[in-house]
Amino acid sequence: MMLFGLGNLFYVSILLVNAIAILSEDRFLARIGWGSTPIEPAFGGSRDEAASVKGKLVNLISSVRTLMRIPLIVINTLIIVYALVLG
Length: 87
Known about the structure:
single chain; mainly alpha; 4 helices; elongated
C-alpha cells in the first residue's frame, strides 16, 4: 500500500517552497532575529555569521524568495488549472 505517492510528494514540496517564499522579512523574520540586515560585530568580534547554520538558512530563505518568485507563480497556476480540470 503506497500512501505517499509522487504526486503528493510534489504537492508537499511545492507547499513548503511556497511557505518559505511568503515569509515576510519585516514582520516575521526580523522579530526572531533572522533578518538579512548585516550586524556589525563588536570590538574583537568576528564576521563569520555567514558560516553558521542560521546564516545559511537566512541566505537560503532570501534566495528562494528571490529566485523562485516567477517559477512559483507559473507552477501554482498550473497546479490550480490541473486541480480544476481533472479534480
